[in-house]
């Protein structure tokens, strides 16, 4: 196996102050080669940065003790990275020469409560996996409302980005469904924050790329959980029908029949059609892709139901599909449990794990694109770059969201239009074969720049301060001021390379 890049900015000095090993903590601080090696890797398998030590905390107090030490007495420049599952793809949860905090070693219960003002909610640790939040809340017939496609991610990790998926058009991203958090700031203070209390910290942390504090508890909004879903896919041979129908579906008003989830993806020759489709369906779809020049678009739509709504769900689906312009005979329907649907990527993960294809490089590019430029993006990127290069492996997701479900006071950045799309190039490659994918990613970004398509990166990765300033745009000043307020020594999440870049 050939490895990959160490960041050019990472110069190791092993300069940990000896007092750090004398801190009164219940957990462990390790510097053995195995722990250091594990903390120098992530899901991307592209960047490697070696920390000087790794902390396995046993309590929130342990984390706070370490952060306070670094802020109060630590040597200048010592950095700390909270590490969820390191499902980042560009070293964002690493800390070159610093200390990586393995958040998932913490164990805290999921507490479900109800209040008149908030309804049902769950208090969960920042280290909690969303799959465990789902399992615990389902015991009471409840569930969070906004999901990522994959549930083996931590609450702290997704709230540091946004947490997007097919429910976001309706409920907003996961960061729009948090009532309150406990956060250990870069100054070592443990602060409870919400829209009402310490709002500056609350909004900073949501989508804040780990720059302002370590989330140790989040209060997540819950609703009644459905038990089953109608899982629909429709195929399109032209982009304008595909995007018109997606935007129509996400514009449904509450009170009407509203879908519960809308996503979309591109089907190309290289696309592995998943087990959703029968062998007979696959045999029909492949020629459609060929006839259409190698590219077909697919909308994925979900309608939830339970015992009470079982008798009306078919009518709801019929209403939702009415007037849509998919290719006749290319609409598919499956019935699945709510959990089977939400946990679908884990099923794919197990399959890839068994083939040794999960822990490979992931040169991903995730973009937010304004709706008004998607037709240009379709021609310029999907047809003239992706199809022509013919190297795509892994899903290419395309679906719209409503900007009014995002709160502009949060750190998270969107494209500047009422409706914008997420376009996710979720490539995987061989260990010494990720560079052509990155070259294609660069080509996509260059095309957008040359054609004045004002994209924003989601799960962004830049290496220069100027790029970060451009990424945050009008939010950059606030972002910098908040950094000074909550992490003035630039201690936290150095792997994002924002305040430690040139
Ligand atoms: C297979 C797969 C599918 C995915 N699907 C989606 C999707 O559908 N939608 C979506 O939005 N994202 C998706 N992601 C991306 C995911 O949201 C990010 O990888 C995210 O970083 C969460 O991963 P993590 O919990 O492992 O966090 P890490 O990668 O461990 O951390 C991410 C960043 O957050 C910081 N951080 C971690 N924990 C905390 C904490 N408690 N407090 C403060 N900062 C913290 C880290 O220092 C780092 O900077 C997917 C990723 C994978 C691998």
UniProtKB/TrEMBL annotation:
Name recorded for this polypeptide: Uncharacterized protein
């Amino acid at each position: 196996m050939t490895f990959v890049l160490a960041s050019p900015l990472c110069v190791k000095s092993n300069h940990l102050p000896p007092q750090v090993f004398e801190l009164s903590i219940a957990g462990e601080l390790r510097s053995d080669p195995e722990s250091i090696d594990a903390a120098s890797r992530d899901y991307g398998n592209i960047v490697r940065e070696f920390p000087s030590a790794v902390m396995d905390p046993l309590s929130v107090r342990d984390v706070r003790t370490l952060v306070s030490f670094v802020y109060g007495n630590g040597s200048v420049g010592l950095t700390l990275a909270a590490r969820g599952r390191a499902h980042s793809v560009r070293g964002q949860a690493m800390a070159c020469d610093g200390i990586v905090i393995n958040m998932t070693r913490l164990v805290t219960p999921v507490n479900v409560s109800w209040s008149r003002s908030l309804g049902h909610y769950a208090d969960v640790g920042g280290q909690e996996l969303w799959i465990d939040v789902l399992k615990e809340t389902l015991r009471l017939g409840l569930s969070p409302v906004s999901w990522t496609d994959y549930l083996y991610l931590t609450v702290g990790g997704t709230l540091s980005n946004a947490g997007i998926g097919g429910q976001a058009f309706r409920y907003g991203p996961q960061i729009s469904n948090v009532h309150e958090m406990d956060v250990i700031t870069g100054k070592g203070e443990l602060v409870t924050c919400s829209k009402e209390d310490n709002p500056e910290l609350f909004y900073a942390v949501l989508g804040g790329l780990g720059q302002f504090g370590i989330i140790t508890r989040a209060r997540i909004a819950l609703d009644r959980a459905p038990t089953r879903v109608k899982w629909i896919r429709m195929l399109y041979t032209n982009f304008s029908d595909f995007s018109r129908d997606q935007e129509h579906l996400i514009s449904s008003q509450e009170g009407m029949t509203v879908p519960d989830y809308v996503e979309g993806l591109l089907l190309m020759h290289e696309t592995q059609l998943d087990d959703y489709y029968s062998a007979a369906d696959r045999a029909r779809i492949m020629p459609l892709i060929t006839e259409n020049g190698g590219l077909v678009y697919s909308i994925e739509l979900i309608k939830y139901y339970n015992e009470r709504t079982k008798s009306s769900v078919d009518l709801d689906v019929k209403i939702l599909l009415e007037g849509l312009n998919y290719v006749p005979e290319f609409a598919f329907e499956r019935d699945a449990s709510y959990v089977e649907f939400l946990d679908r990527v884990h099923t794919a993960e197990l399959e890839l794990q068994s083939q040794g294809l999960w822990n490979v490089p992931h040169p991903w590019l995730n973009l937010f694109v304004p709706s008004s430029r998607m037709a240009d993006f379709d021609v310029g990127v999907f047809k003239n770059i992706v199809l022509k290069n013919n190297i795509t492996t892994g899903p290419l997701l395309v679906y719209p969201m409503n900007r009014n479900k995002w709160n502009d006071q949060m750190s998270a950045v969107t494209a500047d239009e009422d409706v914008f799309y997420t376009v996710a190039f979720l490539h995987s490659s061989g260990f010494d074969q990720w560079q052509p994918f990155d070259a294609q990613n660069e080509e996509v970004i260059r095309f957008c720049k040359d054609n004045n398509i004002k994209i924003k990166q989601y799960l962004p990765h830049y290496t220069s301060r100027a790029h970060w300033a451009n990424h945050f745009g009008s939010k950059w000043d606030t972002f910098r001021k908040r950094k000074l307020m909550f992490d003035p020594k630039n201690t936290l999440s150095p792997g994002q390379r924002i305040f430690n870049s040139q």
